[in-house]
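lol forgot to send this yesterday, sorry. C-alpha cells for the thing we talked abt
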C-alpha cells in the first residue's frame, strides 16, 4: 500500500480511526488553500528531466516518483539507486516541501584527470500543472568544478547534514529490499570508509583520530540513525514503519535530521529555554523537556516539577513564575503542531510515567546503569543534582565513537 501511495503522489496518515480529530486536522491541512489566490497549495502531473555534461551519469532518484523509462547516454546501467534506469521521472503531485534526491556518478577513470578549470553541469527541467490549471516549466542549472579525490576543496565542500539525510534515504531503500542487519552493516562500512578517507590519525593510535569540523557531527548523527524508528522494527508495527519511511522520502534535510536526531529543549526557572544535548544527563528533576522527533512532540516533567504541581504551587499567585514555566513548552509545542504536516502526536508525560518511553528511547544512555532500577538516579550528589537512569541494552555514543576510532586507525584497514 505504501508503494501505491508513494508512486501516485499520495500522503500516508497514521491514526487510530477515520473519526479521530488528528485525521480530520491532517486532512484539512492537506487540502488547505493559499490565502491570496484561494488555490490548493500543490502542483500536479509533474515531469522532471535531467540533463548532464559529459562524464556524468545519473544513477537514480530517491523520492516519491515513478520512472518514465527514457534512456539516453547520461543514464547509468550500474549501481542503480531508488528509481533508476531513466533520465525522466513523473511525480503525480508536488507540494512546497517536496524533496527528491538524485544520485550521479562520474565516468572519468582514476588514470584520467580533469582540468580544474573545466566545469560540469547538471540541469533539471520540471514541468507541472499549477492548481489554477496552468502548465508551468521551471529550469534549474547548477555548475561544479572538477577536482581529484585528494583535493582539499573536496572535503571543504562536504555537507554533513545533507550526507546524513542521504544516508538515511539509501538505508531506508535498502531496508525495504533486505533485512535490517545488512543495512546496519552498510551504514557502518560507509561511515568507517568516510572517516578513514578524511580523518586525521596515526596508524594504530585511536587517541590520535580527529575529523574536520564539517565532518565532526556525522558519527553522532549516524549513531542516532542506527537507533531510530526509521530502521529499528522493535516496538514498531509494520504500518508505523511504512509511515515513518514514507515521510522521510519526501522531506527536506532539516526535517529529515529531526527524524534522525531529534531536537531537545530544556525549560527551567534558572533562565530561558535552551537546546540541550540528546543525552540522559539532560533529564534533570527540576527541568521540563520538549522533544521534537517530527512524529511526536513530547513534554517531559522532571520529578521535582511533578512534586511542585502535586503540591499546587502553580495555582498560587506567589509562584507565578512556575505557572509561566509550565505554559512555555505548551505554547512552543502548539506552534510546532500548527505548522507541521503530517501533524505529530502530542504526548505529555513525567519521570517514571509509561509514556516517558518516547523520550527515553531517543536519548544517549551515557550514564552507567549497573544496579540501578528504572526511574532511579545515576551519579552522585543527591537526587536534585542527578539525571534519571535508563535501563537499555544499547551502547552509548561514546562507546560507539571509541569503537569507530579503533576500526578507522587499524593497520588492517589501511594496509
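and heres what i got for the seq, position by position
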Amino acid at each position: 500500500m505504501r508503494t501505491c501511495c508513494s508512486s501516485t503522489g499520495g500522503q500516508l496518515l497514521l491514526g487510530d480511526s477515520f473519526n479521530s480529530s488528528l485525521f480530520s486536522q491532517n486532512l484539512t491541512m492537506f487540502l488547505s488553500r493559499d490565502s491570496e489566490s484561494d488555490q490548493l497549495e500543490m502542483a500536479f502531473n509533474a515531469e522532471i528531466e535531467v540533463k548532464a555534461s559529459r562524464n556524468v551519469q545519473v544513477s537514480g532518484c530517491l523520492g516519491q516518483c515513478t520512472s518514465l523509462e527514457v534512456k539516453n547516454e547520461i543514464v547509468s546501467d550500474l549501481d542503480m539507486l531508488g528509481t533508476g534506469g531513466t533520465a525522466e521521472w513523473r511525480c503525480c503531485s508536488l507540494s512546497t516541501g517536496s524533496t527528491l534526491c538524485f544520485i550521479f556518478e562520474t565516468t572519468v577513470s582514476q588514470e584520467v584527470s580533469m582540468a580544474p578549470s573545466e566545469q560540469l553541469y547538471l540541469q533539471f527541467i520540471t514541468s507541472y500543472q499549477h492548481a489554477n490549471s496552468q502548465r508551468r516549466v521551471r529550469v534549474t542549472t547548477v555548475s561544479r568544478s572538477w577536482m581529484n579525490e585528494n583535493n582539499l576543496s573536496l572535503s571543504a565542500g562536504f555537507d554533513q547534514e545533507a550526507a546524513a539525510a542521504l544516508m538515511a534515504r539509501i538505508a531506508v531503500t535498502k531496508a525495504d529490499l533486505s533485512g535490517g542487519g545488512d543495512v546496519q552493516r552498510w551504514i557502518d562500512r560507509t561511515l568507517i570508509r568516510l572517516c578513514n578517507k578524511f580523518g586525521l590519525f596515526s596508524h594504530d593510535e585511536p587517541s590520535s583520530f580527529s575529523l574536520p569540523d564539517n565532518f565532526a557531527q556525522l558519527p553522532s548523527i549516524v549513531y542516532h540513525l542506527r537507533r531510530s524508528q526509521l530502521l529499528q522494527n522493535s516496538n514498531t508495527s509494520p504500518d508505523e514503519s511504512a509511515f515513518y519511511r514514507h515521510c522521510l522520502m519526501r522531506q527536506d534535510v532539516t526535517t529529515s535530521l529531526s527524524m534522525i536526531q531529534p531536537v531537545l529543549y530544556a525549560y527551567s526557572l534558572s533562565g530561558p529555554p535552551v537546546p540541550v544535548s540528546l543525552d540522559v544527563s539532560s533529564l534533570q528533576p527540576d527541568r521540563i523537556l520538549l522533544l521534537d522527533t517530527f512524529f511526536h512532540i513530547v513534554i517531559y516533567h522532571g520529578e521535582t516539577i511533578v512534586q511542585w504541581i502535586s503540591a499546587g504551587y502553580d495555582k498560587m499567585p506567589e509562584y507565578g513564575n512556575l505557572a509561566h514555566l509550565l505554559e512555555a513548552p505548551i505554547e512552543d509545542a502548539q506552534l510546532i503542531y500548527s505548522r507541521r504536516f503530517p501533524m505529530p502526536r502530542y504526548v505529555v508525560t513525567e519521570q517514571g510515567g509509561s509514556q516517558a518511553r518516547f523520550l527515553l528511547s531517543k536519548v544517549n544512555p551515557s550514564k552507567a546503569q549497573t544496579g540501578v532500577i528504572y526511574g532511579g538516579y545515576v551519579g552522585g550528589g543527591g537526587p536534585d543534582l542527578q539525571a534519571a537512569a535508563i535501563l537499555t541494552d544499547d551502547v552509548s555514543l561514546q562507546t560507539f565513537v571509541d569503537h569507530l576510532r579503533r576500526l578507522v586507525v587499524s593497520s588492517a584497514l589501511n594496509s
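The chain has a mean pLDDT of 89. anyway ping me if u want another try
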